[in-house]
């Protein structure tokens, strides 16, 4: 009995009312009413079990649809367990029962009236309840025959003062005599979204995320659907989950279990043919559903003349526009399931005509209506797939391209479409599906075609991190294309070349990059401008990145029109050039859709890019949260490369925040996975995390060893992406370990290599390194002034704080304590805001050395992130949200959201109070705006 209690989820209110019903001293009747499968029976049985524990005698009965036409069949079921008490009743009462149930004492003339029989039932119940309270639990009351229902209704209205209680459960969507019984009612609604999730997770804890989402959407809180639907996905291929109920193909998809079909099937079959046809068109077009294909709600088919379905409880009237809407998603699914293939194809054909002007909706219906090869339909599907991919619908695009291949009239077109589908499936993280699509094109060969190479390469890279053999495989495929005599660039070449560049980037060493760049040179005009841009910037930004910022900046406006993998490639390029802040708003807008229905692999790269920009901007808590999210998703999808990359970035964040044990654990885990596989990108990132952790702990010798493991002092290791990024690490570690000459040589090498002209961050750190290693105070001051005056210095708060700390320390030794405070105070504040624990302690120590009193936390300002503080200062200066957004590369809406978070942190409610709040906070910690602080705020 206890297990029954633990299975009920989200029914606290109903169970409390039912407990009061059982505990009440006076007898009465109550009816549980709700739609089919909503959990009425579970509540009924739970209450019966409770009553038994409380000492009640419980009699259970249930209406049976097959006996609904047999007079008194239901009443006999209810009273049969009590007929043993008939002998204790008077002869007249016994005669009434004999007349109804055909006993030996039955007399001619038929059964008594409802009142006579009802009084006799009341007498029997009173006698049966004389020894202990009695509960009658009647399930499926809607199926009781009319005569039994009338008697039960009569009895239920007259139980007051007796120890008898009558609890019935009836469907709200099936008319019955209990609708007018005038009993107290307890409505049983669908579960809330949260409770539905709890029930599903409790009964099906291992359900994949995609299946879980589909089940929750279809069930809409109906417990029966939540428990029945998951079994239908057992053993189904992953691609079926992308369109489980046939919305893109028009096929039935996953068949509904019989119990779920029964919920609405009888009412659907009772409709007239025209109304059923109307509902089928609405169901196939998603009428009343969430628009998940880019169509506005009004663009869906609008059902007409369907009042009959409203009366049957299948449709509701949408109060927003007065149109028809399906009462439950399962109604739509059942309608599609019950239709014949010919009926579905005819409906799709008509819907295709309705949606002539909407490419993707027309493609959906043409795909389902077609039977024989049709090149015109295949062309429409191909165009729809391209459109879907650009708006985050890669999963739908794979389905459409696969169907387009099936409908192709020529083998070359079939092969091309299957290759496109396989490529998109690879980027969508459906690596097994991509392999199967390649195998489906048997005539083109399964191991040597470009499509086969791409599918195999993505699988080996994403799942296993196999960069070495995969690089050789793709390089050989590029050579084959080069030697085939092709003269014009095409999609196949671009895909192979861009994958080769990605593999070279993950390798992060000279051999793969030399091979890749040699191949690109030999391809000549077959290589696109985009691929050449990636080759230059990804390979070695120090030697090839100069002058490459303009095309990356110009591409920002074109991002909405690009496919997701092109967006991520440009984003990676922007990261190398320290321009990610311009890309982040777009990435944040589209990443969720890619992870949900689009190119999952591209979505994970987008999250990594967002994380990297959060790290650069000093939003380290957000960066950690983003990193944990992408790590979980990568593990869930079995994409181990992205999981390892996430751990490497999380190690960097932990090191910056002074979480040294966590940083070293993540660093070691990354190293153990990446180094045997030759993944230089990840091992260098792990080395950078090690250097950061060592610097945070003040272990400068360890930091120096990590830094020179990436590049030697005075040079920048070719193709080592972390070499320029660790400029300050190497310089500071060398200075603190007595290697001043090496530090000076490395800073000068950065200037000689032209780093300040390549990116704003490289400019800031180069001038900062020169200031740290300057041989004269004048030179140090000049270099430091260049840092402070740089227009983009505010975008790199951690680097600037490090430079200020180093410069303030130098000034203290040369010019005295008072002169140093103007640099050390803003440095300490910045470290505190960032959450850089080790650096904060070091800066505070330097401040104490100047004679400054120990400082408390910076009050409200310390709770603001660097970005929030920047926005607050700009808003306090009178700039509008749009003007702030332009400066910060944010949308006005994002600026507004930040301000709403800032106000409670500063204990204010209006924009006008910002200036005073910021001034009070600064005064509270004894900080003037000053020369040093003014640049960043």
TrEMBL record:
This chain belongs to the protein called LuxR family transcriptional regulator
What organism is this sequence from? Catenulispora yoronensis
Q: Which InterPro entries match?
A: AAA_16, P-loop_NTPase, Sig_transdc_resp-reg_C-effctor, Sigma_54_int_dom_ATP-bd_1, Tscrpt_reg_LuxR_C, WH-like_DNA-bd_sf
Pfam (any one):
GerE
The record's section on SMART domains has: HTH_LUXR
Question: Start and end of every HTH luxR-type domain?
Answer: 857-922
Q: Does the keyword Glycoprotein apply?
A: no
PROSITE patterns listed in its UniProt record: HTH_LUXR_1, HTH_LUXR_2, SIGMA54_INTERACT_1
Name the keywords, alphabetized: ATP-binding, Nucleotide-binding
């Amino acid at each position: 009995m206890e297990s029954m209690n633990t299975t009920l989820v989200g029914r606290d209110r109903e169970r409390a009312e039912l407990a009061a019903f059982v505990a009440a001293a006076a007898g009465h009747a109550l009816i549980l009413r709700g739609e089919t499968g909503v959990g009425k029976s579970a509540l009924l049985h739970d209450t019966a079990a409770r009553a038994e524990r409380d000492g009640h005698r419980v009699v259970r009965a249930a209406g049976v649809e097959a006996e609904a036409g047999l007079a008194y069949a239901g009443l006999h079921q209810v009273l049969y367990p009590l007929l043993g008490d008939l002998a204790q009743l008077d002869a007249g009462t016994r005669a009434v029962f004999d007349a109804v149930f055909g006993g030996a004492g039955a007399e001619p003339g038929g059964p008594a009236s409802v009142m006579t029989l009802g009084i006799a039932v009341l007498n029997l119940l009173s006698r049966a309840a004389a020894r202990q309270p009695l509960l009658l639990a009647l399930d499926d009351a809607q199926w009781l025959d009319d005569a039994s229902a009338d008697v039960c209704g009569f009895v239920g209205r007259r139980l007051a003062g007796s120890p008898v209680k009558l609890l019935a459960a009836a469907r709200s969507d099936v008319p019955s005599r209990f609708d007018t019984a005038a009993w107290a009612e307890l409505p049983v609604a669908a579960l809330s979204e949260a409770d539905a999730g709890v029930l599903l997770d409790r009964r099906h804890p291992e359900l994949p995320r995609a299946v879980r989402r589909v089940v929750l959407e279809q069930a809409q809180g109906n417990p029966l659907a939540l428990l029945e639907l998951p079994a239908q996905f057992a053993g189904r291929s992953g691609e079926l989950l992308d369109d489980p109920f046939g919305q893109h193909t028009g096929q039935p998809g996953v068949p509904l279990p019989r119990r779920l079909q029964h919920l609405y099937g009888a009412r659907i079959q009772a409709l007239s043919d025209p109304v059923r046809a109307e509902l089928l068109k609405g169901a196939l077009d998603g009428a009343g559903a969430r628009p998940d294909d880019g169509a506005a709600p009004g663009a869906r088919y609008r059902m007409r003349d369907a009042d009959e379905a409203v009366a049957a409880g299948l449709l509701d009237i949408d109060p927003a526009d007065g149109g028809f809407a399906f009462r439950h998603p399962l109604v739509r699914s059942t309608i599609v399931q019950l239709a014949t293939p010919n009926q579905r194809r005819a409906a799709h054909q008509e819907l295709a005509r309705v949606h002539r002007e909407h490419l993707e909706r027309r493609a959906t219906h043409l795909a389902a209506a077609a039977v024989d090869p049709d090149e015109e339909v295949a062309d429409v599907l191909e165009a729809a797939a391209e459109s879907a991919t650009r708006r985050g619908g890669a999963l739908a695009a794979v389905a459409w391209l696969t169907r387009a291949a099936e409908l192709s009239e020529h083998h070359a077109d079939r092969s091309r479409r299957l290759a496109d589908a396989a490529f998109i499936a690879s980027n969508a993280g459906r690596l097994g599906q991509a392999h199967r699509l390649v195998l489906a094109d048997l005539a083109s060969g399964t191991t040597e075609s470009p499509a086969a190479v791409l599918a195999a390469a993505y699988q080996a890279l994403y799942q296993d991190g196999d960069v070495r053999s995969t690089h050789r495989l793709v390089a050989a495929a590029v050579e084959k294309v080069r030697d085939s005599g092709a003269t014009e660039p095409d999609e196949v070449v671009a895909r192979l070349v861009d994958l080769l560049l990605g593999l070279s980037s993950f390798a992060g060493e000279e051999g793969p990059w030399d091979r890749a760049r040699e191949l690109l040179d030999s391809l000549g005009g077959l290589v696109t401008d985009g691929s050449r841009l990636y080759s230059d910037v990804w390979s070695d930004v120090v030697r090839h990145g100069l002058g490459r910022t303009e095309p990356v900046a110009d591409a920002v406006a074109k991002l909405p029109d690009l496919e997701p993998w092109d967006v991520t490639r440009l984003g990676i390029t922007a990261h190398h050039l320290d321009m990610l802040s311009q890309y982040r708003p777009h990435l944040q807008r589209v990443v969720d859709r890619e992870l949900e229905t689009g190119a999952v692999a591209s979505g994970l790269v987008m999250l990594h890019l967002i994380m990297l920009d959060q790290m650069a901007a000093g939003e380290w808590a957000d960066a950690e949260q983003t990193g944990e999210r992408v790590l979980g998703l990568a593990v869930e999808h079995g994409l181990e490369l992205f999981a390892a990359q996430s751990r490497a970035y999380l190690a960097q964040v932990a090191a910056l925040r002074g979480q040294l044990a966590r940083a070293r654990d993540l660093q070691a885990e990354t190293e153990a996975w990446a180094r045997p596989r030759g993944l230089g990108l990840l091992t260098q990132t792990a080395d950078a995390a090690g250097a950061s952790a060592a610097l945070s702990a003040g272990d400068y010798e360890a930091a120096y060893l990590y830094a020179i493991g990436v590049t030697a002092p005075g040079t920048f290791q070719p193709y080592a992406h972390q070499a320029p990024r660790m400029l300050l690490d190497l310089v500071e570690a060398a200075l603190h370990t007595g290697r001043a000459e090496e530090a000076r040589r490395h800073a000068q090498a950065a200037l000689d290599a032209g780093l300040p002209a390549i990116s704003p961050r490289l400019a800031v750190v180069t001038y900062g390194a020169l200031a740290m290693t300057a041989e004269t105070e004048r030179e140090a001051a000049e270099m430091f002034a260049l840092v402070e005056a740089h227009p983009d210095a505010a975008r790199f708060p951690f680097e600037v704080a490090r430079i200020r700390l180093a410069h303030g320390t130098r000034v203290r030794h040369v010019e005295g304590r008072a002169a140093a405070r103007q640099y050390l105070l803003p440095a300490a504040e910045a470290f505190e805001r960032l959450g850089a624990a080790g650096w904060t302690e070091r800066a505070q120590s330097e401040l104490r050395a100047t004679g400054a009193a120990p400082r408390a936390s910076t009050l409200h300002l310390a709770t603001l992130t660097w970005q929030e503080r920047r926005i607050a200062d700009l808003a306090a200066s009178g700039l509008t949200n749009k003007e702030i957004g332009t400066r910060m590369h944010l949308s006005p809406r994002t600026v507004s959201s930040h301000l709403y978070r800032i106000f409670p942190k500063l204990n204010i409610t209006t924009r006008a109070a910002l200036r005073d709040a910021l001034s009070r906070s600064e005064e509270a910690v004894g900080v003037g705006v000053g020369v040093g602080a003014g640049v960043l705020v």
